[in-house]
Design brief:
By secondary structure, this protein is mostly helical. It has one domain: Winged helix-like DNA-binding domain superfamily/Winged helix DNA-binding domain (Arc Repressor Mutant, subunit A, Orthogonal Bundle), CATH 1.10.10. About 70% of the residues lie in helices and about 10% in strands. The protein has four helices and two strands. A hairpin with a 5-residue loop joins strand 1 and strand 2. Helix 1 packs across helix 4 and helix 2 crosses helix 3. About 15% of the residues are buried.
Length: about 120
């Protein structure tokens, strides 16, 4: 589950970042995601191969070839699906954390009551 959640999170973030900043470099994308440049390159190529993202080259201000990444209509649809899946994962985590907090509150209350009885 942890690996699947991580994959969903990375896919979600790649879609989100590319949509917000189509001229982002893979190096900056890797830094923002906290993953290796190789992993970003692999993921971006896979998204391009699936027809979810397209890339176009252009000359940047330093006259170097750079790329612009655009979500295709199919990519926008996939981003919606990934966003929903990621939201469900996060909501589940949130519910688990709420339960853990409540459990800790009860535990602290019990310890506090025990301390009062001993004194």
């Amino acid at each position: 589950m942890a690996s699947n959640m991580l994959d969903q999170e990375i896919r979600y973030k790649i879609f989100k970042i590319i949509q917000e900043n189509p001229k982002i470099t893979q190096r900056i994308l890797a830094k923002e995601l906290g993953v290796s440049l190789g992993k970003v390159n692999y993921c971006v190529k896979a998204l391009i191969g699936k027809g979810l993202v397209k890339s176009k080259s252009f000359r940047n201000s330093q006259n170097k070839i750079a790329y612009i990444y655009l979500l295709t209509p199919k990519g926008i649809e996939e981003k919606s699906k990934v966003t929903i899946k990621f939201l469900k994962i996060r909501m589940g985590e949130f519910e688990d954390i709420k339960k853990e907090i409540e459990h800790l509150r009860v535990e602290i209350s019990n310890l506090d009551n025990l301390t009062k009885v001993e004194n």
